[in-house]
Amino acid sequence: MSTKQINIIKIGGNVIDNPDTLAQFLTDFAQVKGLKILVHGGGKLATKMAEGLHIPQQMIDGKRITDAETLKIATMVYAGYINKNMVAQLQKSGCNAIGLSGADGNAIQTVKRPTEPIDFGFVGDMTEKSINTEFIEILLNNALVPVFCAITHDANGQLLNTNADTIAQSLAVSLSEKYDVNLIYSFEKKGVLINLEDDNSFIPEINYDYFLELKEKGIINKGMLPKLQNAFTAIEKGVRNVFIIKEDAILSLLNKNSYEGTRITNGTT
Amino acid sequence: MSTKQINIIKIGGNVIDNPDTLAQFLTDFAQVKGLKILVHGGGKLATKMAEGLHIPQQMIDGKRITDAETLKIATMVYAGYINKNMVAQLQKSGCNAIGLSGADGNAIQTVKRPTEPIDFGFVGDMTEKSINTEFIEILLNNALVPVFCAITHDANGQLLNTNADTIAQSLAVSLSEKYDVNLIYSFEKKGVLINLEDDNSFIPEINYDYFLELKEKGIINKGMLPKLQNAFTAIEKGVRNVFIIKEDAILSLLNKNSYEGTRITNGTT
Predict the structure, then answer these.
(1) Is residue B76 part of a domain?
(2) Residue A269 is assigned to a structural domain of this protein
(3) Which residues bind substrate (chains A, B) (predicted)?
């Protein structure tokens, strides 16, 4: 008996900020065959909303602090506006999407990050038990397509802001116990780039040793580091395939097995 | 074989505006036995958000016009902030809630209201086919508790603002084909009042003839008229019981069959 396959696709914030690109991505996503899950980040709307409402955004080391007002806006924008509009567009394309935060069906339960050394505020970190696979399987078994935003909960009434890349990785790892999982990080670039200015400088395959080498040389930019770390963790923990590709490449990759982009391998150089 | 019972409870906006009252209501709701669905309105947060963002609110005959910016805020506040915080609080109380807009799982498909005689903007009206009972039954059969906000979709990619009282009524009517349905409109008053200033002037039972009489005499206030019309429609179309009660009375009513408030009857005077 072959294991069932599932595609878990994370879409980046820069794609969400461009309505035409997002619409095309969602049309493509609707056509991806088989079981699938979408995870989305935030984009710039939350920052714009905060500015409009004159809520100051505190940053430490380039990371936003999620104070109570910022969490409120994140919940409105991610779980409300972005998530529901994506679901409505997917429904239009015949994809039976269901939008979820981690509180819904207790899908993703996280732990508030410790306040030392830096208090990041209402940020939830994933644990090995965060993902409620039983609930997700109920949806998948009924031909529903989960669409997760990056808001989770602590099961004690508190919503928490959580990194969307990490949610996608945890979903992939947890579901890999029962499924053959493809984890796809899709965003506005063609893959992991050697030269950020040249979209064609993507690395077709990257293993952990090569990653460490590039990291040491300072070739991989700061935003890509945690994404790649998530990718290698996923491979280590049983996810079948991990790709980092442009948002317009998911259909070629998943339905035609042909693409340009970066594949994560766990082989040695 | 006796038909399964389900309680559909709509909670009004004034309750949502008071965090302590809302928290107590949700604690009570979590303890309601058996199958249940929660439907919630909006409250004043959307208006406050619109003011904060300097988005003018257009009103005609006391009704808000849902232009594109107003719909955006309604989606953020109703489907995002209010819905997800309610779900998180219910999860804390051991109630396996799942927050939904009408787009999720294509749960509620509405039709954009005609622009004549008045263009109310992005408002969706319910039809007899609006409710996707098959989807809702999947959730109920898996011990999930649907929590609906008042945002629906047209299945063509457009989200629409929809009256929460009417959503509750349509859910009740559609589910009454398979279930014994109790529909409960819970809000900040003890029931349908003869004298709005006196909370103890509630009418214990009201039938359609009495309703028409009170309406003719101008005793029933404007806000109550559509709620009562929804209530009588529900009874006519097969809903077993309809109550209009204070938000702190749901546990006595549903678990102890004892309450103060208004019961809708379809008998003649």
Answers:
(1) yes
(2) no
(3) 42-43, 64, 161
Shortest Cα–Cα distance, B268 to chain A (Å): 44
CA geometry: angle A249, A254, A256, nearest 5 deg:
90
**Closest-approach residue (CA) in chain B for A70:** B81
Residue of B nearest to A83 (CA): B80
Give tens-digit pLDDT for A225-241: 999 999 999 999 999 99
Q: Two tokens at A106?
A: 């207790």
Q: List CB contacts (< 8 A) between A53 and chain B.
A: 49, 52-53
Q: What percent of chain A has pLDDT over 70?
A: 98
Q: Give the residue among B248, B235, B254 at the shortest CA–CA distance from B191.
A: B248
Residue in A116, A139, A113 with CA at minimum distance from that of residue A127: A113
Peptide bond into B117 cis (omega under 30): yes
Is the CB of A76 less than 8 angstroms away from the CB of B80? Answer: yes
Find chain B residues with C-beta within 8 A of A106's C-beta.
Answer: 91, 96
* Burial per residue of B171-199, b for 16 or more beta-carbon CB atoms within 10 angstroms, e otherwise: bbbbbbeebbbbbbbbbebbbbbeeeeee
The residue to which tokens 């994370």 are assigned: A10
Tally of domains within chain B? 1
All residues of chain A having their beta carbon less than 8 Å from the beta carbon of residue B89 are: 157
**Residue B269: pLDDT over 60:** no
Average pLDDT, chain B: 94
Which region among A134-148, B29-43, B52-66, B172-186 has the lowest average model confidence (pLDDT)? B52-66
pLDDT of residue A267: 58
- Identify the domain containing residue A13 by its residue range: 4-264
Interface test with B, best of A98, A100, A139 (most B CBs within 10 A): A98
Q: Report the pLDDT value the prediction gives residue A122, as an integer from 0 to 100.
A: 97
CB of B166 within 8 A of CB of B230?
yes
Bridging pattern class, strands A35-40 and A4-11: parallel
Which amino acid is present at A77? Answer: V
- For residue A195, count other CB atoms closer than 10 A to its CB: 10
B68-85: pLDDT as tens digits: 999 999 999 999 999 999
CATH code of residue B190? 3.40.1160.10
Residue of A nearest to B149 (CA): A80
Q: Is residue B195 part of a domain?
A: yes
Q: For residue A71, give the chain B residue with the closest CA.
A: B81
Q: Which residues pair with B124 in a beta bridge?
A: B112
Chain A interface includes B89 (CB < 8 A):
yes
Interface of B with A in 229-268 (CB under 8 A): none
Task: Tell whether B269 is covered by a domain.
Answer: no
